[in-house]
Amino acid sequence: MDMDAGQMNEFLEAMARFNPAIPDDVISYFLHTSGFASDDPRLTRMVALAAQKFVLDVALDARLYQQHRVNAQGGGGNERATLTMEDLSSSLRDYGVNMSKPEYFCDSENTLQSDE
């Protein structure tokens, strides 16, 4: 899809009004730590928009996995939806992100303390 100058200006104005869920400062920080440097705030806002879209897509797909899991277990009804790590992992795997626990995973401070 090619955009003419008018469409591009309209898009940039809409993006400037857009209030992303991930603040520009957070996006700027991660862009800087990854080696990206630019003084153009529009680039930061575009990355924020893309990141928000990605997170939303993953969350919606995870919700679908949750619904399929509940339906397969014979559940349903009016109970509250609970997303599990398996739902999220399945959704992320669809986007090429492998989410697995480290080989040595500690889930509480008590696990680290030795018996004295």
From TrEMBL:
GO molecular function: promoter-specific chromatin binding; RNA polymerase II general transcription initiation factor activity; translation initiation factor activity
Cellular compartments per GO CC: SAGA complex; transcription factor TFIID complex
Location(s) in or outside the cell: Nucleus
Bilayer-spanning residue ranges: none
Domain of life: Eukaryota
InterPro entries: TAF10
Principal subcellular localisation of the protein: nucleus
UniProt-listed GO biological process terms: transcription initiation at RNA polymerase II promoter
Signal peptide: none
Protein family per UniProt: Belongs to the TAF10 family.
Keywords: Initiation factor, Nucleus, Protein biosynthesis, Transcription, Transcription regulation
PANTHER family reported in the protein's UniProt record: TRANSCRIPTION INITIATION FACTOR TFIID SUBUNIT 10 (PTHR21242:SF0)
Name under which the protein is recorded: Transcription initiation factor TFIID subunit
